[in-house]
Hints:
By secondary structure, this protein is an alpha/beta fold. It has eleven helices and eight strands. An eight-stranded parallel β-barrel has the order 1-2-3-4-5-6-7-8, surrounded by seven helices. α4 packs parallel to α5, α7 (about 135-150) packs parallel to α8 (about 160-170) and α8 runs parallel beside α9 (about 200-205).
Amino acid sequence: MLxxxxxxxxxxxxxxxxxxxxxxxxxxxxxxxKIGLTLLARPGGVAFAHELKAAGKMVFQDWKLHDIGAQxxxxxxxxAEGGCDLxxxxxxxxxxxxxxxxxxxxxxGTKLLAVTVMTSLSDADLADIGYGYTASDLVERxxxxxxxxxxxxxxxxxxxAGRVREIAIEAGRPDFLIVTPGVRPEGADxxxxxxxATPRAAIEAGATHLVVARPVVGADNPLRAASAIIESIDxxxx
Length: 238
């Protein structure tokens, strides 16, 4: 059975019991998991993340840290010391600099990802918020800031992955991570995502990792759904 650590399954489920059951159903095929705020905020949520890490899984704690630099520094250090492969922060310079300082103080292998523009936001949504940028322009600005601040990668939609890859290579960072939510297999419902692409298209555009939640955890047969995604990107490499 094929496995591929580039597929990160988002455990967007209502309880820790449901999340554990899903991990059991996907055993042997999925090795990487994202744990979002709904589970992290529950009693035992962080312990569950550590449990997956101890079981040899790649664990992505999706905190999306956003506070003054000193608070982000302390939080990033705490998460990294606890054991975490990927940690998200918002792509604002003060936030990213604080996160880098905290992670470095922890001395672990935690990789920091800066969230550029949420994949649920369209250009019209950004205008409503008050940004004077389109999504693609704002992503580009934040990617350059992320590179300057020394984070390890970004979270962006698959539609911007190609440009992010170009900017990273221009900056001498071919190892820069590009983690893409908003990934939907052919024929899948978009849900609340606005800027989406298929798994194959996202990898071909330059994504290093795919985050997929509902198309897997909401499927009648999650194992089959995850296997189909892995098969669709098998053999595709940067």
